[in-house]
Amino acid sequence: MAPETLRAPLQAFRGIRRRLEVRGRVAGITVYDDFAHHPTAVRATLEGLRAAGRQEREAEQVRGRLVAVFEPRSYTSRTRVFQEEYARALATADRVLVAAAHLPERVPKEER
What we know:
Blueprint: H1 3-12, E1 21-26, E2 29-33, H2 39-60, E3 67-70, H3 83-90, E4 95-98
Parallel strand pairs: 3-4
Antiparallel strand pairs: 1-2
Helix pairs in contact: 2-3
């Protein structure tokens, strides 16, 4: 396919929904939505935000914090399978809030 054919569609592309989607900006705070559903993806997302924020802060000479809000909705995020990996991944943030697990009754008690 010729590059000219791709130019317009690529310029119109606004990203993938819920992949570092900006939900709003207020008073210097940017809120993102990201559907990272595995500890590796959580870590990569937070590290990317940390790096981008560092560049932005250096340019503006301000200090910022990275706050992560994690909602365990996928089956594996509601089990103990990746518990330690999620903890290490989320430790990338300055502060972490973990919401209650979604539909915990669907996970056997001994696996929660």
